[in-house]
Amino acid sequence: MLVADTLIVIGLSAISLGTIQEADGIQERTFLLRNAGHEAVTLQQGYTSCGCTTIHFDKACQVASGDTTSVVLRFNPRGKGGEFEEVGTLVYGENNKRINLTLTGTCITSEETLLRQFPVRVSDSLRLSTNLFDLGIMYEGESKERHVVVLHSSEGNRQERIPVRFTVDAKTPKGLQHIAHPLKIGNETVTVVLDVLIK
Question: pTM higher than 0.90 for the full model?
Fold first, then answer.
């Protein structure tokens, strides 16, 4: 038995873009939808999981029973890097039904974006997302953890997330402290600074 208003995807509802370069610019894919119900449906609105992705379709378009329509998802890789999964949602019909369409892949970040994302240079092959952490107010016995992301440019721009942990002990002086904290990254020791107000 046919449902009154049902859109179905012809083909894949999730399309992989594979490995793309940020410098290649906007990528787009078209999804085909068929009205499998026995009544016409109206396309109401669309939204996406991130501002980097837009959804395009004929708004207020009526899709008759058995007819098809197309929806385009466009992904802008600018400032993005690594794996991504972006979802576009189409709202349709009198009951505001939803259908999700997905673009996945891996984005190779441009050199310019990498320098913005990892502004702290340690060596030719090692960069950090930051070397300064504001821990706010802390009390004796309290611990906090933050993370620094390390870029290993000599290993194909591999990124590694490393925890930075700090515990206030009885020896830690009171007041505003700028604490040099050693961090072991592979064979290298890097110093990051922890700003903290000890109460």
Answer: no
